[in-house]
Amino acid sequence: MSRPINQTNTLTTHPTSIDNTHSVYPGTFYNNNDLDNCFTDASSSTRAAFYTTTGSRAVTQIYLNFDECADIPSGATINSVSCSVKCGTQGTNYFSTRTVQMCTGTTTKGSATTMSGSNSSPSTHNLSVGTWTASELQNAKLYFHIIRGTSNTTTDATFSVFGATLTVNYTVNGIAYTIAATSNVSGITVDPASQEQLGGEDAVIAIYGDSLDDVNVTDNDINVKDQLVRHTVPSGGTLSTDLGSYSLVSGGFNSSGTSYFSGLVGAGIDHTRTTSNYYSSGSGTIAVFTYNLDFENIPSNATITALTCEVNGHAESTSQNNEYMCVQLISGSTALSDELNFKSVGTCNSTQTLTATTLPTVAQLANLKLQCRLGYYGGAINGATCTITYTVPGGGSYYWEYTLNNINDDHVILIEEAGAFIPPEEDPQKVYYPITISSINASTNPRNGTTRVEAGTTQVITITPTDPQLTLALDNGVDITSQLQGGIPNNTYTVETQADGASYGFTLNSSTGYYKSTNNGVGSSASVARVSFDLESNVLVTIQYINQGESQADYGMFGKIDTTVSTTGNTYIDSSASPDDPQNYYYMCAAASDSSTSTKTLTYEIPMGQHYIDIKYAKDQASDSGLDSLQWKILSIEATSAGGDYTYTLTNINQKHSLIFVFGDVDFYYITASGNACKLYPDGQVVKLDGDSYNLTIVPNDPHATVSITDNNIDRTSLLQYEEGQDKNGNTIVNYTYNLSNISATHTLVINCVSGSGAQIYLKRNGVWTPYSKVYLKINGTWVEQNSSTWSTVLDARKNYKINT
Question: For the chain, what are the domain ranges?
Fold first, then answer.
């Protein structure tokens, strides 16, 4: 049962993964202190020892994700956020900047803290984190920003991260709704059987079994079978994968070794290479590297029953040390198999098999890797293929997902043996029209399917898209895009051509659309503009620019989102080839190598709301070169999330309606059903994606009718499935079903119901409309049976009647 929620919770978490998209570092670690060591809390005694990028003022940046923050409901109120991090660096003379800070995405929060402490004696820092919203926490990260100095630039230097503890206190206000799912059919199971979701949130129920052809799936007594999305379970419950992306964990290759190992991504065991000398010499274990093993499309409730990995390779020599090339299956820091040593192979390639002694969970598969350790002379990995065997509750070749969007009620989902579909009770003295709704990449209210509504009434349809692109909106085949209300996100921007405090700005060339800096020829100056965005959806903003100035001296710069850049002139301290940017304020710097008259583009990912970007062209005191300017314009703003609900209103309904709403760039097929003397569910035209299924229910007006169907003008009557049942009053209900699976073409279905004997009339008895086969009226004192053709007029005029059942 639904219940009000007004409770305060605390989430305490630590980093769980690295954001490799935005992190910039050599990818190597000191002395086997690998990345997984920092995925723990701030009290940890183990560390990830990152090597930093070498070179004068070279930048290293590490983003660590707090993935568990996704568990915080999006509607929660954030009361407080705190973060402590334990870290340290090698000698301070290696670095000009060494800060740690919280971010949402790549947008910094709070203020940066300078790291103190050393690798051997780290310090615990309590960060200034600022204020947060629940949506910002969905993308919370810990950000380390390291800049090398101008000396000791060719020497390896490290900094260590031991762990971090993020504590979020939040309050949830609203209604918690219960979603219960039950299967009464042998061999078909559901997951989860029960869950509770906050109002406005989504929920997914998975249904496992061989087939759903002979079952009904209802949600609060409404048939939702046509809303299920089918997924394939690999035949036999096995799935194999070759090597994925390559990562050096510690140590270092010689030049040939680096390219050799990274070139083997995706290679199976039949990928044979025999090149030697993949490693520099040394003693003991020289280095550790890993390959990702990506297993996808395994249901979350699967049980892993076996894991093996065939590895092809060899060790270079068996003459020195105890270990030459060792391989092992791992997930995070957990060893899943014994370590296999290739030292007995010598220089001859062979395939050996690793077998998991500890079977992973489905969650552990996300971090499954083949780990390799090389010794003094090293060895070769020519390829590998790993195989998972698993079982799924209910078995079968498929599973289906049913998604509830924007929950605002309790739900009871029931899977049971197919029986007769019982249409909602209708007043036979009134006229009803079917409203059929079909959507792709959107949920609707009323839901997809057919709703019968009383003539002359008004029906408001709410459409909630999951893709921002509105592709199609039809009512009985007529485009109604212009009649939809709301939905389309209003994403706008304004340009402050000269930012507050700047001596120079940018001017707009109305013929080209470019804004051009105005400080050309002025030494130690800067033109600064600000672009402000007002966004109703998440967007990708693409900026096109032309940058040309004096090499190593004049720079075009694009600030990070919501980060104010300096409006002063000179942008570097000495003769360094990079601007002075100790806080990494600039999203991108168009410097010497980017100086030309050609156009280039830069893309920002900006979340919905109000944000800004500062754009700057800065010059030193030296001479000028080329165009001596930065020119830029907003090339496009592309919505990447839906902007809100659409509504479509039907007034004074006097005909049936087939409503179709398609979002996103998808291919689909039309399925059209029409009939006489029957009710259809769905009635009219719907759209289906390639591979989808379609289920049509036919309810004849006369239970004794003969029913036939053609599909694209081909008689398919023999494929109809007959069902008979009783309504709540014990009256006979008859319907037929017609099913299409793995749809790959358009279908036009024509249904014909020919009435048989025993026509019925509905009379209201004890408040319930009940069908009867015979009606008698008293005429001149005699009860006379009435022919059905006179019922509609006679019964309206007479009140005195007798029923014979």
Answer: 3-172, 184-233+394-417, 237-391, 431-480+642-666, 492-639, 667-758, 761-804
